[in-house]
Structure formats: structure tokens, C-alpha cells
Amino acid sequence: MKTISVTTKAGIVEGVCDARFAGVRDAFVENFEARGEIGASVSLTLEGKPVVDLWGGRKAPGGDPWTRDTISIVFSSTKGAMALCAHALADRGQLDLDAPIVKYWPEFGQNGKEAALVSMALDHSVGVPHIRQVPKKGAFNDYNHMVDVIAKEAPFWVPGTRNGYHAITMSWTVGEIVHRAAKKRMGRFFADEIAKPLDLDFWIGLPEVQEHRVAPMIAVVPTPEMAQSRFFQRAMSDFNSPSHFFLRDVAAFEPNTREGRAAEIGAGNGVTNARGLAGLYAPLANGGTLNGVRIVGKDTLARMGRVSMATHEDATLVIPTRFALGYMKSMDNRALGGSDSASCLLTEAAFGHVGAGGSIGFADPECRMSFGYTMNQMGAGLLLNDRGQSLVDEAYKALGYRSNAGGAWVM
Description:
There is one protein chain. The protein has helices at 22-34, 78-91, 118-122, 143-152, 170-182, 186-198, 224-227, 230-237, 242-252, 258-262, 274-281, 298-304, 386-398, and strands at 2-8, 11-17, 39-46, 49-57, 72-73, 271-272, 289-290, 293-294, 309-311, 321-323, 351-354, 360-364, 369-375. By secondary structure, the protein is an alpha+beta fold. The protein has a single domain (70-388), classed as Beta-lactamase (3-Layer(aba) Sandwich), CATH 3.40.710. A hairpin with a 2-residue loop joins strand 7 and strand 8 (293-294). Helix 1 (22-34) packs antiparallel against helix 13 (386-398), helix 2 packs across helix 6 and helix 8 crosses helix 9. The chain is globular. The two termini are 25 Å apart. The mean pLDDT is 97.
């Protein structure tokens, strides 16, 4: 691979890149020059081997350089790691995804949730996308408190009958199911059973000794398009909607505090870089095993990538969405009015997850590629903005994919 060093208006872009993926390198540089990137990283593996590993810019405007080992919160890109914990347990026979949640967590069976299945917690149909009560200060950092609140919460709909993005509450629905099945907390399970065997620079609950490496997140500046979006209009007109509670809860999340990064919030506070995301998905792009480390078997892997729930209007995001069990599938909302960066264009075989502001990690078993992109300057929209999507597009073009006009990349 060729060593890269390019000076941009935001700082130096460095790393290595296989010549075949020069388009990814050029798009990454263009993000700093023309799309407002401050600090970021992008990483790809192909057949389990690194082919792109780039980073650059700064940890903050005018601040220290974003180096090879800089890490940041990846928000909902964390969900891919959390979901993998559940699937790993299922693969080992310790968790039945088709069983009622109460088999593992009896306290959850209250107020209309008695028959809810484990799979429903993974595909956003379990019916508790948010809590109705205003969360106490620091509530999301208090795992036991949130588990108790979620257990008592009445569902917004009969579990399994529709879906609405569970932006933060998956931390305690899926998180506590993993806890009960594994006999250890999800953050610890991920560290011991996923991150350590794969040598991932990835935490759900960041140790204090790693704090010096973190690039703080930079909030997006609201735009008129954001204010006119379907999601924002619903959030500001229906104060009992999941959309409204999502907007409320964003303000309660504390990604730039020590407490917010140290907590175990499996749906939203994972800390890593692009290398960590690509490394997470590398075994999943290659049959479930990488370098002799078996994460899941082929049957489990097939279920992980299959669409489990899709809708024309997500109860939270107010756009069409498509989910596998814990993962996003390719979503094409480019023709939808009142949507702003509400698409994520992959292949039909790919599965992964985006994070607020535009990060993404995914596996594509069809072409045996894994991909990660992280950044500190958050972008607008509900899914991918032009920075992340441009990198994904160039990766697929490099592999000979022809078009995404049909809503997913095809040869």
C-alpha cells in the first residue's frame, strides 16, 4: 500500500491506501477541502486485509492534529457492536432470539410488553423507542436506573406490530437482555468476547486512561432544511410522539463529558475510530471468522444480514426504514420530500449502522469488504451525509459496482 501525506485546509491527511482505492483517498481529502470536515478517519478491509487506513485534520478547529490513534464517540454506530454481542450469544446457544424477553428479564413483562420477543428489541419493533417521563439529570449514565424505567414503561404500540427507531433505549432493552443471558454486563462482554479477540480499539464505557486520545464532538449548526424536515415537523407538532422524545433526549445525552463516555450506553456512546469499526465488521464480511477468531457461524451470519422489519414510515424518524436484527440495511430516501440526508446506500447484502452526524460501519459479505468512517464535525440529517456517502460510493466503484440508482449498489 502507498503511504499518503496530503496537506488540506483542515490539516494533514495521512495513512496508507491501496492504489485500487485511490477514489476513496481523493474523496476523503475532498471532504476536508470542500465539505467542512474537521477531523476524521476512514478504513476499509477486503477479504480481511486492510486496503485503506487514513486519518487527518484536527481534534478541534485550530487544535491538535487528528492522529492515527485518535478516537471519538460514534453515537449509533455503536449499535452494531451491541447487536453483535446478542448474535454471538445466540450463536453459542446462550440466547434465543425468538424467545420472549421475559425468559431472560422477567421484570420487562409489564404494561403490555409481556409477549415481546428478543428479536423485537433488535429490530426496533418492541415498542419502547423512548421513555415518556423527562429523564433525570444524568439518567442515561445510570444503567440500573434506566433498566428499571424501561422495564416499567408501557409500549407506544403493541410490540411487533410496527417499528420506530429506538435511538437510545436499545442501550437498556438489548443491553439488559445481553446482561441476563451472558451473566455479565454488555460492555464487559463486548470487551472480553469481541474487542479483545479481534484486537479492536473500541470501548463501550471508555477507561479514563484513554481519555487523552478523544476528539470531542462538534455539534451541527441547524439549517433551514433541518427545520423543514418531516422528522422535525413531527417532533415540534406532536409532543407525545417518539420523534419529540428523540429530540428531547438528544439534549440529555452528554458525549463530551467524562461521565458520558465512561457510562455503558450501548446504543450510542461507543468510542473508536474507523479502524475499530472496520475491524468489528471484518469477520462478518468473511464468513464470521477472521485470522482464526470465530465470532459467529454462517447460519447466524445469514440471519444477521436479513431484513427483519421495514416500513414506509418509521414511527420515530418519519421516513421509510429497513432493519435487520440490530443493523441497518441499504435505505434510499433520495426522492422523499422533507427529508435531509436520510439515505444510506449500500448493497443488498451489506449490513451495519450509521451514527448521529454521519459516522458508519458495515460489513458486505457479497464483496467481503468491511468499512468504517468516523469524524468529529457532525453533519445534518438522519442517516448519511455527503461526506460518508461519498467514501462509501468510491469504495464500491473501486470494486466494480456500477450504480446505486435502484436504491442499492449493483454490479
